[in-house]
Backbone:
């Protein structure tokens, strides 16, 4: 770590190698696409190297790097999408959703991440902060300058939209199996 503080390129590369996989996973959850995730990752490392002298070693370095990455992703979100667009609501009727929560658990991780990434940006951001990062709705509200109620609503709608996506996918799979078994 001391070598990184002295701008030793090899030490910085080793730090990058150590944390880039974990940080890239975070970036992919928040970014709209691979290119945006790469931008967030690069900005996160620039901030980490620039502020390495502020790391107090009172907790794991990985947790500190994770916090920088999440904050960088949120800054990117604010830059690219003003929160005026945050309140976009989808016309989804909860009674139409027949998929149980357990169906989500049956998905492959990559499929679930892909579905999360396809959510509208506001929904995706709140879903990631709550379900994956572990923030509560008050904290999310403070981070995004929205009310805790809006955070809860966005999270609920994100879950509903994910269930709807899964329901549609399962319906198509069941139709294909039915056609295949009837042949």
Residues:
């Amino acid at each position: 770590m001391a070598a990184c503080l002295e701008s030793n390129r090899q030490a910085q590369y080793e730090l990058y190698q150590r944390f880039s996989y974990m940080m890239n996973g975070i970036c992919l959850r928040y970014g709209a696409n691979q290119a945006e995730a790469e931008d967030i990752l690069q900005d996160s490392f620039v901030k980490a190297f620039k502020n390495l002298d502020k790391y107090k070693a009172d907790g794991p370095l990985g947790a500190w790097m994770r916090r920088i990455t999440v904050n960088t992703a949120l800054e990117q979100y604010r830059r690219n999408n003003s929160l005026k667009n945050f309140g976009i609501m989808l016309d989804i009727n909860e009674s139409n959703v027949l998929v149980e929560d357990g169906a989500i658990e049956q998905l492959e991780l990559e499929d679930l991440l892909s579905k999360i990434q396809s959510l509208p940006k506001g929904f995706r951001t709140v879903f990631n902060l709550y379900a994956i990062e572990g923030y509560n709705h008050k904290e999310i509200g403070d981070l995004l300058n929205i009310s805790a109620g809006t955070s809860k609503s966005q999270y609920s709608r994100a879950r509903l939209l994910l269930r709807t996506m899964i329901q549609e996918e399962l319906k198509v799979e069941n139709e294909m199996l039915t056609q295949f078994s009837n042949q």
Notes: The radius of gyration is 19 Å. The domain at 84-183 is CATH 1.10.10.10 (Arc Repressor Mutant, subunit A). Confidence is low (pLDDT under 50) at residues 82-106.
